[in-house]
Specification:
D-Maltodextrin-Binding Protein, domain 2
Length: 306
């Protein structure tokens, strides 16, 4: 039985929606449906009650879910054990990264380290800020790139790789596109396109409405900024995301249908590399080398060279 299909099954059981689950897994709905059918064919029983795109576990599915989780957990435990052994040998470094802002600066810093130290292996895990913090505190990653509106986390050191601000991307034919800036009150009746509910970006986006005591209308959520921009280009609503990412994506794809407007009051986020403080004497050689390289990259950025 394909292990990846089991992971797909677990996600489908959680979301109970074919399109939402397929987006989370970065596969097409048809591919996900085919993977689930493959599992059902192998166990020779249907595991879901199907109604359009909705898929809810039936009794057989509930039984199978427990075993699927155990199989995935055993695989993860085995891989983690092997990874820990590699790390004990000192040649592997795990870094939690971001994919929605300052991509060029982060990628260039990582590239320079790997070029300078070809004997080391760097495994980059691209996730949401919340998950990156979790990886750092659980010691699954030695370093994590995160976005911070306020420096509320303690017990860590930081290297700043710049900042970005929350902005709105909307179709240039939208009535609000002619404005210079947008506010929570201007957006209160609009269909909003936000990052998925459990993400840091969703929390940050909602905070501008909470402060003004405005209840927004969320039309859709997505896991990737590209999807939000595609929905906005189709006049499905107004996407809230980081300004630099939105402008870069629009320029690269020559998407002249969209405009990006600032939001007031301005909500600016730092992009920081964070790592646990107080462990200088116990850092591995690879961690010391990485930290030195990142400090140089952050210094160059501050001077306008990076």
């Amino acid at each position: 039985m394909e292990l990846e299909y089991l992971k797909d099954f677990i996600v489908m059981a959680e979301y109970e929606d074919l399109f939402e689950a397929s987006e989370r897994l970065y596969v097409t709905p048809s591919s996900l449906s085919r993977h689930l059918r493959s599992i059902e064919d192998e166990v020779n029983v249907e595991l879901f009650e199907r109604a359009s795109r909705k898929m809810k576990l039936n009794r057989y599915g509930e039984i199978f879910l427990d075993y699927a989780r155990q199989m995935v957990q055993m695989d993860e435990a085995c891989r983690k054990h092997l990874h820990n052994e590699q790390e004990r040998m000192g040649n592997v470094l795990h870094v939690a990264s971001l994919g929605m802002t300052k991509e060029d600066a982060i990628s260039e810093a990582l590239r320079k380290f790997m070029k300078q130290y070809p004997e080391y292996q760097v495994r980059v895990h691209e996730e949401d800020t919340f998950k990156n913090w979790d990886q750092l505190y659980r010691m699954e990653s030695s370093f994590a790139f995160v976005m911070e509106h306020e420096r509320s986390h303690v017990g860590v050191e930081r290297l700043c790789f710049g900042s970005d601000m929350l902005a709105a991307a909307l179709h240039r034919e939208h009535p609000l596109a002619a404005r210079q800036v947008l506010t929570a009150h201007a957006l209160r009746e609009e269909s909003l396109l936000l990052f998925e509910k459990r993400s840091y970006m969703y929390q940050i986006s909602m905070s501008i409405f909470d402060k003004e005591r405005v209840k927004p209308r969320v039309a859709a959520t997505a896991f990737r900024g590209e999807n939000l921009l595609n929905l906005a280009a189709r006049k499905m609503g107004i996407a809230l995301l980081m300004r630099e990412f939105a402008e870069k994506h629009i320029a690269e794809h020559e998407n002249e249908a969209l405009v990006v407007l600032p939001i007031e009051p301005e909500l600016r986020l730092e992009v920081n590399l964070v790592y646990r403080s107080g462990g200088e004497k116990n850092r591995r050689a690879i961690e010391r080398a990485f930290l030195e390289c990142m400090q140089e990259a952050a210094t160059h950025f501050d001077k306008g060279k990076g």
